[in-house]
Design a protein that fits this description.
This protein is an alpha/beta fold and 292 residues long. It is built from 9 helices and 10 strands.
Length: 292
């Protein structure tokens, strides 16, 4: 029987774990252990062109080196296409999903014509061009018809949060023009399938939460509790990521990288063996969360 708490760490195998992703992994593991819960690992390899051969296995070895062992075998998104298709059909039947013929260039042109030229690095807000039909053009992708208005939720670390998804994002992609499933749909379907009750992940993913809550509600899924962890920044002040060349953590010396990850989470140093350090950090994490 599953525990009342079910958490997960869901890395994308576009490369091995770096120090930022190890912080998220440790936080999610600590949160599950502090609540006597179940901790799962999901390999988010749905974006297959970006996945690096062998990276998923490397990530699993890094986690094992650090003593972060999942309670069940990992789930692989690349094997879950039928479940995503079922969810898309459900949304389509509800009128919440529709085909879209727009390319990125089409969206930028439509926004410019509306007096909203796209700013570099800003969200490309979909203007709703295909909401009422394809206008004779072939479908490229599938989008989710978002609900208007402000959506509010509470993050366990960041506090009260809100977003107007229609104004700040627009109808977002569920299935891409290349036939691949979009992250938002896959993560919502898989969180529900795995019975995830608590999501602990990096703060860079907080902006996705309102979209995922809208999808959860449309599909009749429960909404997990969310906690977004602090980001690890590089020397240039930008968050560490595989895209900007973040180096893989060397787990041949697990206590060094674990201690750095624990420090990033505000936990005190521990000089003992790995198992003792992890147990001490679980106790510290429990106290930290009870004080929030």
């Amino acid at each position: 029987m599953r525990a009342a708490y079910v958490g997960r760490f869901a890395p994308s195998p576009t490369g091995p774990l770096h120090s930022g992703s190890l912080v998220a992994a440790l936080a999610s593991w600590l949160d599950a252990r502090a609540q006597s819960g179940c901790w799962l690992v999901r390999i988010e390899d749905v974006d297959t062109p970006r996945c690096v051969p062998g990276a998923a296995e490397h990530i699993l070895r890094q986690l094992a080196d650090c003593g972060l062992h999942a309670d069940e075998p990992p789930l692989w998104q690349s094997r879950r296409g039928a479940s995503y298709e079922t969810a898309l059909q459900q949304l389509t039947a509800q009128g919440r999903a529709y085909p879209c013929a727009c390319s990125r260039k089409d969206i930028e042109a439509a926004l410019a014509a509306m007096g909203h030229p796209h700013q570099r690095h800003a969200e490309l807000v979909y203007p709703g061009t295909c909401r009422d039909g394809l206008q004779g053009k072939p479908a490229r992708a599938w989008r989710f018809r978002v609900e208007p208005g402000l959506l509010a939720w509470r993050d366990r670390r960041l506090g009260a949060q809100h977003q107007d998804v229609e104004r700040e994002v627009g109808d977002f992609i569920l299935k891409r023009a290349d036939g691949l499933w979009a992250y938002q749909l896959a993560v919502v379907v898989d969180d529900a399938a795995q019975g995830i009750t608590h999501v602990v992940r990096g703060e860079d993913l907080a902006d996705n939460t309102a979209r995922q809550i809208q999808l959860q509600r449309a599909l009749g899924f429960a909404t997990p509790a969310y906690l977004h962890t602090p980001l690890v920044l590089g020397a240039n002040g930008e968050k560490l990521s595989k895209q900007n060349g973040a180096q893989a953590v060397d787990t041949s010396d697990p206590m060094t990288v674990l201690s750095a990850a624990a420090a990033a989470l505000g936990l005190a140093a521990h000089a003992g063996p790995r198992a003792d350090a992890l147990a001490a950090w679980v106790a510290q994490w429990r106290l930290l969360q009870s004080a929030r």
